[in-house]
Amino acid sequence: METKRRQLAAIVGEDNVLDDPKTLEEFSSDESLCEPLRPWFVVKPANESEVQALVKWANATATPLVPVSSGAPHFYGDTVPTATEAVIVDLSCMKAIKRIDRRNRIAVIEPGVTYSELAPALAKEGLRIPRPLAPRANKSVVASLLERQPTTIPRLNFSLPEPLRNCGVVWGSGELAFTGEAGNGPLNLEAQWQRGLAQVDGKGPLATDLMRLVTGAQGSMGIVVWASIKLELIPAVRSSFFVPNAELSGLVDFIYKLTKVRLGDETLLLNRAKLAGLVEPQPAAARKLREALPEWVALVGLAGTALLPEERLKVQEKEFRALVQEFRLTLCGGFAGVSRADVVRLIDGDAGDHPPTLAAKGASQDIFFLTTLDKASGLIETVRSVAARFDYPWPDVGIYIQPQHQGVAHHVEFNFPYDPDDAKEVARARDIYLEASAELVDQGAYFSRPYGYWSELVYQRDASSTEILRTVKQIVDPANIMNPGKLCF
Predict the structure, then answer these.
(1) Are 132 and 217 within one domain?
(2) What distance in Å separates the CA atoms of residue 189 and residue 106, rounded to the nearest whole number?
(3) What's the rounded Cα separation, in Å, for the pair 401 and 108?
(4) What is the Cα–Cα distance from 269 to 81, expressed in whole angstroms?
(5) Is 320 a domain residue?
(6) What would the mean pLDDT of 339-343 be, rounded to a whole number?
(7) Counting Cβ atoms within 10 Å, is residue 329 exposed (0-12), middle (13-18) or buried (19+)?
(8) Within 10 Å of residue 227's Cβ, how many Cβ atoms?
């Protein structure tokens, strides 16, 4: 170990090699129910060259690497080592915002840049990035997009990794590659910018689409050292509305029509427990608030940007009200304790250092997948029946539904709060997670982000794709040093 420590210090510097018990313990587990395992070291590279040197060193020494770029807490087991003697590659110090290109609406950033750091830099240029719902303040933008976290504006979601476009990636072999249109130029961003390239098109290089190999891969293919992100103009004027209903089924056709005609910006569905938890951080106040809320609420944001913003907003509001009336729904600007300002805060802000899902009891077991909205009610009933078997109070379960990819698919997410210090509650949360996940897969739920136990459910059902994926892994990571044990590896 001492030899390895000296070798790592020669790459990233003595101060950036950590092996104190507290740091190692922090990276040995997360908020998920995965088995804990302590790494040997945590290293903090400062740039692309150091990352590439680390990967080459790992190949030479057969040392597993686990890339991490967001701050704690982590949730899904993907940042916890599965192989022994692993080294955590903490990318949080790589915080350069390399370029903000207003003309092409593109930002190029390193993996340590968080949403709370990127937003003010973009705002100076009148730009914003489509965001997930209430990300924590220390959440890496690049990590969020690589893991395909849902963003809240479905009409701008042209593919599930959107708005991710190009990446610079150090494969497990130690080779540096650029994905997308950046892969057609020299492996130097400054040289590409001088030639007028802007890293906009995500397809490529040439006839390939290498970005697909790193999205959803949980760091098992390589380490992304920069990414280009598609941006949008900050609205000049905006408004937001609630469309409540007692049943999710009563909102299905309305949401389908809304996304079909691309009306509105932010469009999402929350049950009362989820909305109350997002608005009110104090558990007792959140429980009181949810009793005053309808069972389901659609949140819809309308906006006008650079060209005739007031007129655009006025037309959208007229069409939106007509659509609400067409489906015999009601429209309101807020509820007792929840205002339009709260909606804007949820959409534009972050959740601070303490995610709302942990506020109720200190921990939360989450289940999420993709489906179509017309099937969501049936899958929710499946989860409800599993919760009932284990006497879990259904009113405590938060549910979030996010239209994606122009409304073609929908992210459905359940939050099961539990007390991490109560062994019975921990066991119950684990049992619900295991049983509900298995039943959901059998009923067609698509676990596009197969963390932990989900990887078994997903890959055992598709032998041919699994074999192809393993072949690709052998090509880009022949020594199997990149986060081994994840996915089907």
Answers:
(1) yes
(2) 13
(3) 30
(4) 35
(5) yes
(6) 81
(7) middle
(8) 31
40-65 pLDDT per residue, tens = 999 999 999 999 999 999 999 999 99
**Which are the contacts of 483, defined by CB distance < 8 A and separation ≥ 6?**
64, 65, 66, 67, 78, 82, 218, 219, 220
Residue 79: name the closest of 71, 90, 69, 68 by CA.
Answer: 68
This prediction has a pTM of 0.95
Give the residue-averaged pLDDT of 424-430. 96
212 and 122 share one domain = yes
Cβ neighbourhood burial of 389 (10 Å; 0-12, 13-18, 19+): exposed
Count the neighbouring beta carbons within 10 Å of the beta carbon of residue 485: 17
Q: Domain for residue 41, yes or no?
A: yes
User: CA–CA separation, 252 vs 376, rounded Å?
Assistant: 9
Asked if 161 and 242 sit in the same domain, the reply is no
Same domain flag for 61 and 107: no
**Do 333 and 273 fall within a single domain?**
yes
Which of these three, 90, 108, 143, is where a domain ends?
Answer: 90
Same domain as 216, residue 268: no
Element (H, E) at 296: strand 296-304
Cα 133 from Cα 411, distance rounded (Å): 12
Residue range of the domain that includes 17? 2-90
Q: Please enumerate in sequence order all residues whose Cβ is within 8 A of that of 212, keeping only pairs 6 or more positions apart, or say none.
A: none
